[in-house]
Amino acid sequence: MHHRSRSPKLLGTAIAAVLGLGLGMPTASAVPAADPDPVPGLVAGSDTAAPQLVTGLAEAAPGATPADAARAHLAAHRDRYQVDPAQLVETGTERAADGRRTVRFAQQYGGLPVFGAAYLVHLVGEGEGQRVESVGGKYFTGLAAPTAQSVPDAVLRELALGAVEDPVARQAATAEDHGLVVLPGGTGRLARHFTVRGADAAAGEAKARAVFVDATVGAVALAYEVRAPQPPAAQAAGSAGAVGAAGAPEPAVGTAPDVHGNPVQVNIGRLPDGSYQLTDLTRPATITTYDAEGREYLEVRGRMPAGIQPAASATPDFPASAAATGAANAHINAGLVYDFYRDRLGRQGIDGQNGPIIAMVNATSFGKPMRNAAWDGQKMIYGSGGAKEFPFAVAIDVAGHEMTHGVVEKTAGLIMIGQSGALDEAVSDYFGNAIEVTARGLSMDDPRAALLGESLCRTGTPEACADRRLDDGRTTVADYVGAPYSVDSGGAHLNSTIMGGALWDIRRTLDPLTADRLVYRALSEYLTPLDGFVEARNAVLAAGRSMGLSRAQLRSVAGAFDAHGIKEGWQRRIGVDSRLVLGDVAGGLVAPAVADGRWVAATTGHGFGGVLGVVAGTVGSSAEPVRLSPDDGRSHAWPATDGTTAAWTTLGGLPGGGWGAEVLARPLDGGPLRSVYTGPNQQVSDVQVSGGTIAFRLADFATHRALPAISVNGGPVVQIPLADGHAASSVTLQGGLLGWTEIWTSGERTVFAPTVYSIATGRVVAQYVLGDGEGAPAVRAEQTRLAGDRLYWVEQPDDKSTGSSIRSGAVDGSGVSEVLTGTTADLRRIESFTVSDKAVTFVHAFEEPNGPVHNADLPKLWQLPLAGGTPRRVSCNRGGQYVPAADRGTRVLWLDATAGRTDLVVRERPTGTC
Asked: Strands, DSSP E only, in 187-249?
């Protein structure tokens, strides 16, 4: 049976029973329907017995320190919270201006941190008179993951580096090891956490990824793009850099040109040698602005290069050449942001402790002006724009946005994936705009108030220039775009204005100062790293109650969230034109398979923490899927089926000891599990099954050379020999034929050759060498699929000015036919494809645009006849669509991210145009 987590509704009922009437918390039925309390008294946790939020408390909590009082309260009410105090580690106490304290605990399991787990206790009063007001967060019960690593370090590091898709970039990539963590969900998952850095030259940008590799299975469990935290040594260098080589500066006042060339007054530092630098010493937090002097973003992201110094001048009047970098604007804007947080919200700088504030201007990207701004975990980095934009430091809202990312990092610690990432962006948008509106004295009704980055354009209207606008009216049901973590960090920017718009509407409804304090209190005292939209709604409402907002004010806050569709169960109201096969297929984009209406798929059912297992079902059936793989702690994935038998690859500890891969098979209608192949320290991929034959690609982990392998009618596995230096990719199987793409090097050229092999004769019967001949354009064959009497493949030209093609070759070697022609007019890059007896279905790859990501940029399914023709959209679902599997005719299954999660869905025929 497919495992289902406990229902949050049932959990809520159970917790309410434990809480009892002594807490004085009204249930929904006890409150008059005409005047419901918008603040929830109890919110059950998801995939845990610990509640997400409990409000309305007033319980004495004596203790020597707030942390002692909070821990004692949780220990005294273990039946209520289901929290083991021994698993809690205090990470800090936030003290609000009114004396409230929020104690933050991180969860550990077996002495290891639990990813994203944080539990908060809110206290009011002092000493013996202090009491608990509310409790909540994410604490994961039921963890039973191993805490000892069994996969070798070298293997884990190699798998982490594999997150860099481009093979050239992978050669220069680095992997910084942060140690073991436990990924939550179900019983949890032991993983090793790496930060992988590499440059994507094709996209013209630097990448930093958080990669979590299962330490007992040997597979990537979670990966997403991150800001690059600065190593401790580099942080120390950055802090010391404000002093400069000539000694400590003294406060001074000077002038510097802004980006428009106008001289503006700036607070600067005078060095002992009589020179000056952009260091503001007038505030408790020192503000220093550096000039990257055209250094690459990759060089300065997450580090302070040796020798780099603050922007300097021989006199207190900085030269006119400084206008091109925007240094004066960056310097002044950093002070405006600091003042906003201190004067309106009582926060002492980005870190809350008046730590140094660092800005860096004039960074480049692959030799060109950088058209962006970023917070890298330690400082703001501003590009100098280009022909169309001013330096990004000119915009107060951009500076406020980036510095707020730092505030978020130091408070709620929102993780940049999915809804928590969109929430991070939304809060940063909100405060970026609030800071600009306040600094410029704009009314909330001003058309520019809701625009982000509208002052960057050298030409054009503010509306056309703005990167985002918080009054775009987007809602979850109508506009939420589902994406995996590999695309826009799971839709962090795609979906941010849904939440940002709700927060901005609150600022329009309430007094702006009250709204700013409300959102800040929710951020600093209620939100936790993995919170999504509904948790944020509840956090804001709970923060409002703690501030003493009236019932009418709280209703207006709830109304703003309602207007943007941010309410419990919103995902179920998103419309789709596909039919659900299996909901919430967590665990990454692992391709399903289908034949004759019988499907197989890999799923965890437990968010990050579950290990993949293989399940099977029938298209159109309402029966629960049947689990085929054993629950043995290993990862079972990449299944294949011929409609009768399923086969898949397994990673983890091997039955005879050691670590490696195993190929397993089982009849769909039940029967014994069969081990087809066991390979210590080997990688298995492209598992295929047809009749009594099982085929796969087998690679030695050390050499990475891969060869096709087959087992016929339960016989021993035989590797098919290839010429020295040749390797195989993308194995495909149909009847007695085996296909693959053969790859070898000829001089300086890599040759790709789609190949067909007869299992009966043991010979290659067709091979089509791409780009053969002098001067032929470089082209790669990616993916092969056998269907009917032809072998199909995708051709990717190295020339980025031409799109992908799909071609087929007769299995007897008699010739090639065109299915889809890649042209210079259509630059689609095909990510994956599948073939049935009637149609070819493909997914175009995600190409990140030079600007905001929209729904149209996400991968979508297209279908056309085998003989070619005009591709038609398979589905108009607005989320990302991935790894299709063809059945008979035009029926296709795929993984769809529209509903804010990844679902396995099906359509019988293309929808046409959208």
From this structure: 189-200, 205-214, 220-225
126 Rama class: left (phi>0) / alpha (psi -120 to 50) / beta: beta
Q: Name which of 416, 552, 425 is nearest 498 in CA terms.
A: 425
For 579-907, CATH gives: 2.120.10.30
> How do beta strands 779-787 and 790-797 pair?
antiparallel
pLDDT at 549: 96
C-beta of residue 74 within 8 angstroms of C-beta of residue 594: no
Evaluate whether the domain defined by 412-574 bears CATH number 3.40.50.360: no
Q: What is the pLDDT of residue 598?
A: 98
SS3 call for 70: helix
* Contacts with 336 (C-beta within 8 Å, 6 or more apart), sequence order: 396, 399, 400, 435, 439
* Nearest of 644, 647, 650 to residue 631 by alpha carbon: 650
Q: Which residues of the chain are modeled with pLDDT < 70?
A: 1-35, 166-168, 199-206, 228-246, 772-777, 848-852
Token output for 743: 């790859």
CA 677 to CA 716: how far, in whole Å? 8
DSSP letter for each residue of 326-339: THHHHHHHHHHHHH
Of 3.10.129.10, 3.40.50.150, 3.40.50.720, 3.10.170.10, the CATH number of 228-394 is 3.10.170.10
The pLDDT of residue 827: 75
Contact (Cβ atoms closer than 8 angstroms) between residue 765 and residue 757: yes
Predicted pLDDT of residue 200: 58
Q: How far apart are CA 870 and CA 847, in angstroms?
A: 22
Q: Which of 481, 554, 489 is nearest to 223 (CA)?
A: 489
pTM: 0.90
Location of structure tokens 């609150």: 506
The confidence score (pLDDT) of residue 128 equals 80
Per residue in 301-331, pLDDT (tens digit) is 888 888 899 999 999 999 998 899 999 999 9
Which secondary structure element, helix H or strand E, spans residue 651, and what is its range? Answer: strand 645-653
Q: Which long-range contacts link 776-781 to residues 24+ away (Cβ below 8 Å)?
A: 778/749, 778/750, 779/752, 780/750, 780/752, 781/741, 781/752, 781/753, 781/754
Cβ pair 394, 329 in contact under 8 A: yes
Assess whether the region 228-394 and the region 579-907 belong to the same CATH fold.
Answer: no
Cα–Cα distance measured from residue 325 to residue 295, given in angstroms and rounded to the nearest whole number = 12
Domain parsing of the chain, residue ranges: 8-138, 153-225, 228-394, 412-574, 579-907
Tokens for 870, please give them: 């005009």
Angle 120-121-126 (CA atoms, 0-180°, nearest 5)?
A: 145
Model pLDDT, residue 231: 39
List 784's β-bridge partners, or say none. 793
How would you class 299 by CB atoms within 10 Å of its CB: exposed for 0-12, middle for 13-18, buried for 19 or more? middle
| pLDDT score of 656 | 81
Q: What is the pLDDT of residues 576-588, one digit of tens each?
A: 999 999 998 887 7
SS3 (DSSP) at 637: strand
DSSP 624: P
**Non-local CB neighbours of 507 within 8 Å, separated by 6+ positions:** 430, 434, 444, 515, 516, 519
Distance (Å, rounded) from C-alpha 188 to C-alpha 173? 29
**Which helix (H) or strand (E) segment is 688 a member of?**
strand 682-690
